[in-house]
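Reproducibility note. Readers wishing to regenerate the assembly model reported in the main text can use the exact inputs given here. Chain order matters: entities are listed in the order in which they were concatenated for prediction.
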Amino acid sequence: MPNPPPALELRGISKQFPGVKALSGVNLLVRPGEIHALLGENGAGKSTLLKIISGVQQPDEGEMFISGRPVKLVGTKAARAAGIAMIHQELQLIPELNAAQNMFLGSPRVTCGVLLAHDAMQKRASEVLHDLDPGIDVRTPVKYLSVAQRQMVEIARALLTDARVIAMDEPTSSLTPSEFEKLVVLIRKLAERGVAIIYVSHKLEEVFELCGRATVLRDGVWIDELQLANTTEPELVAKMVGRELVHNTRHRTAGGEIVLEARGLQWKSRVRGVSLAVRRGEILGIAGLVGAGRSELVGLLAGLQRPDAGEIFVHGKAQQFANPGSAIRAGIALVPEERKREGIIPLMSILSNVGLPTLNKATRFGLIRHGALRARVHADAVRVNMRPLALSRPIRLFSGGNQQKAIICRWLSSGIDVLIFDEPTRGIDIGAKEEIYKIIEELAAEGCAIIVVSSEMREVMYLSDRLLVMQGGKLAGELSHQQYSEEAIMTLAIPRADMAPAASQELS
Amino acid sequence: MTNVKLRDLPVRDMGTLFGLVLIFATFAFVSPIFMESRNLVNILQQSSINACIAIGMTLIIISGGIDLSVGPVAALSAVISASMLAAGVPPWIGMLAGLAVGISCGVVNGVLIAYGGLQPFIVTLGTLSIYRALALIYTGGNPVLNIPSEFRSWFGNSLAGLPMPVIIVCIVSALAWVLLRKTPIGEYLLAVGGNEEAARIAGVPVALTKVTAYAISGGLASLAAMIVVARLGAAEPILGNLWELEAIAAAAIGGASLLGGKGGIVGTLLGAIILGAMRNGLTLLNVQAFYQLLATGLVILLAMLVDRLTRGRA
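Running the prediction on these inputs yields the following structure tokens for the assembly.
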């Protein structure tokens, strides 16, 4: 077989940040047409490596080759010109602009030197985009597109510049299974055209399905390059984490008395007549596709929105929540889905972030008793294995997993009766994931009623004692633990042909 | 915590302090009387009005808002309080009435912002006109005279060599520092300004927090108005013109971020003294007012540039 030069090769890349060696001697080799997984826990150095590849940062040491030629990439423009494109985890599109405008942002086509050539750009954009998803009109403002469609626009933008290497950072973190399947087809098509794909994901199932080889990083160090066909998942995890993970099986319980009950909850067209009940010590899972109304439902339970109709009972007493604060006073708290937007206060310390909801209980004569507060938060932080255990440090400097642990810590000694987790481990590495599972199980064992919303089917099945499946804003069914299987969940979650057209859009 | 040392100051406040020392050193070098204790007291006195306003402004800026209406709030409470005093009402009742007017104006701002869902800039831009108009309508545009000397002497006295306004600002600063650093409201202000949606989900009483900040700002605006009325012996309906910009400048020089979630009382006080010392020093050097304005603008921009360049180190 004639061996073409690798599309991208990195040799001995090192990068030092003040106080941290982010990367030391990392290698990466991606061939044209290859789908190459880049794996590692959060903080392993994947993001830094991607930044170096896309020209955002420059390595202190090491060499970089594109198609066999040595390059130095300074700035994203240089990287793009060299044929490297990045698809970010948090999509970087401007909501008010349409798909075509977004695709040409930064390198617009002009006529007469200054005027934007809208027609030419739209024509070219729709040519490229049509290949990926014929359903997208390039004139639609991006804010009206689904997350999956926005991703297509991002990828189309990469193709526009004729990228030879496309790096994808967690491209599926907010996609539904059907959208994921479409993305898989697309990625394979790109690979067939000879594009080299670097694929970063925490979801190992996807990695095994999609990728041929994988490079594993740990603590900024290159660990191994593996042929995935010859590797098992536990082996891979062990390489990433540096130790074997054990799944402890919890004693399943039917739970105690009912703590929280909802009847006929209704909100806009997103939640349509949902009733449910959670018991003391029980973990109730809620599964469903993105857009099925799960987050909206738990938002109603936690007082984020007021239901248009329906009732909520806590310990048998009817309650109406004006805001999250009143839900918290009734004993219901939420660990929200979007950590950055709804969870953390970035500039504040871990201590302040954790103490926020319980400050009123930590005062004497109106003044915060900082000593007592710190002692309590310290104990909770130790319990969740916060790393580093630096309570005065701003939370924004911590990894996603540790930020999530801090958000959970808020409620550990708050006397809350019902704790709702919306996507508890999104964007969190495997080690921290296991730790968060352990905390959730401990809380349940202590008598807290738990609701877990998750798009990861393994996660809800692993955690929950009982599972509700939502579809199109309604409860499609309930599964007991004995009935759990991915097929059973999907059968309930996917809209059927006889459903209203609005609800079946997702699958089309 | 009992023994606050210089090195315990946040890095940003150290920077502001350094700027202040630099300005003092420069003026001390070129003007022999600048460092005389009488002039230093003068600087503090001249800075006290702005400091008083800027403390309230800092709390609001930390919460992610802005209060453009402080000048007119001061004017409105000044003329109402002064007309009561001139009519022979006991001075302490006249003063409380003035403070109540200021706090009420602040509450109106806060309610429109927190419950009406309007943007702070627009709300206080609107009430800036309205409160000023009310003050002008109430007085017919004329100053209120005949302020009783008892009231004037309250703010005119000195204690341990320090003029009353300086002492009042010291007390207000101490209270505001405690509020910001030691009470739940202070944490709520930082949280609301840092990430309002996250604060709401964590159970922070967002609306109440905002209303509190605007109420305090209104109250401090009227307190500053009382000091001015006592000093001048009259209340002008046009009092407090451009106070809001001076106060915002002091807070910004002191490290408050107009994006919210960041700022402190110590920094703002230093910022107010920097502005006061600049004005004082340039006047001593007989620099024209036009150039003083220029210098003030340059100092603000310089402070922001230094802030930008050193960000991320702390």
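We highlight two features of this model. DSSP finds 18 helices and 24 strands in chain A. Chain A has two domains: 8-241, 258-342+417-507.
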